[in-house]
Amino acid sequence: MRFANGVVGQQGAYFDGNSYIEIRDSNSLDLSRAFTFSVWLYKEDAGAGGYAVVLSKGDTAATDDNSPYALFHDYPGLSPTVRLTKDNRWTGLISAGARTDFKQWHHLGVTWDGRDVKFYVDGVLTDTQTWQGPLPNSAASLLIGCDPPGVTEYFRGMMDDLRIYNYALSDSEVQAVYSGAGHATPTPTPTPTPTTTPTTTPTTAGTALIAGSRTVAPGSTVQVPVNFQNAQNVGSLGFKLGYNPSVVQVIKVSKGSLLASSTFTSNVQSDFIIFGFATPQAISGTGSAAVVEFKALGAGGSRSPLTLTEIIATGSSGATLSVNAVNGELSIGQKQIGDADGDGKLSVLDALIALKMYVQALPLDLTVDINKDGRVTPEDARLIMERAKP
């Protein structure tokens, strides 16, 4: 275990899948009547053992009062879960319906007020389930990032700003903890091997083609833009976009808004798409060059790189233009609540999509049901706009 830059400050903890932090027992860790667990997580994967363990008081083998509580993720390391003990046995193994995806920062909050267990992901209440206490007190150590013995499970990735309260925070207090960390996206991983982080929008200086990054639920569809940044007097453009056909399927290819006046064609091949544009009038500015609708074929956790190659561009005079390429990625998994377009953040566009669902111009997606009333309404659009990150 070592320290690296996190979300809140300079001391996020990185766990390598074979390390943990041990905290000796104290009265402050007795949570018999209520608790709140709050932590920022960046999971590389499901960790050793497959359960992405956050913390455990005692251990898995102690199916008695010596192991009163644990926070981990249901196999394969995606759905937040608490294990609660009463009367010398596990009586609560409670999982959230929402997920915290791999290779993305998420804030996870879990509260229990003596009756209701509530799960929050990125400040949004996602699940409420009932469990009656009390929890037993235990002299066992609190383990961060580990749950032994049997098949010992370890966390792999980063944790930051881990908090344990002996009372249940309110909805607004959980939201305040989440918002208090700020919204700057940190360096996604402290390991030497670079990884793609779909929640950030890559940028580069000069003229560039930028493949979008999105998250889509298994079996669902998503629209991914290829954006043209800082186009300067462009007369023609051609490029390829590669994808993994075992993970995603191309449903539809459309011309983007920036090149709306251009003559356009495309051809979908087994693992790439070829695009061609031409116009006698110069095009300048920033906007979408094309939009590709994909369907998710892969299982949760699978990914398809979106790779831009063979870019050729000329100006209105016929001179060759230099265009940089920024690749994207499609991730198969659970979207953030309210994230209608799957780009990893809440925006006015998500609110517009929610309104289109309400007027039945788009298919219903209950991921956009912010207030959890079982439908998508203008109120959900308002809540999305209220929580949109600047």
| Count of helical stretches | 3
Low-confidence stretches: 181-205
In angstroms, what is the radius of gyration?
A: 23 Å
- CATH T-level topology of the largest domain: Immunoglobulin-like
Strand content: 35-45%
The top-level CATH class of the largest domain is: Mainly Beta
The number of distinct structural domains comes to 2
| Arithmetic mean of pLDDT | 83
The CATH architecture of the largest domain is Sandwich
The string of secondary-structure elements, in order, is EEEEEEEEEEEEEEEHEEEEEEEEEHH
The first-to-last residue Cα distance is 34 Å
Shape: elongated
Structural class of the helix and strand makeup? mainly beta
Helix % is: under 10%
The number of E-state strands comes to: 24
How is the main sheet built? 9 strands, mixed
Topology:
Layout: E1 2-4, E2 12-16, E3 21-23, E4 35-43, E5 55-57, E6 69-74, E7 79-86, E8 89-95, E9 105-112, E10 116-121, E11 124-130, E12 142-144, E13 146-147, E14 153-154, E15 156-165, H1 171-180, E16 208-211, E17 214-216, E18 221-242, E19 248-255, E20 263-268, E21 272-296, E22 303-315, E23 324-326, E24 328-332, H2 348-358, H3 378-387
Parallel strand pairs: 16-23, 17-24
Antiparallel strand pairs: 1-2, 2-15, 3-12, 4-9, 4-15, 5-6, 5-12, 6-7, 7-8, 9-10, 10-11, 13-14, 16-18, 18-21, 18-22, 19-21, 20-21, 22-24
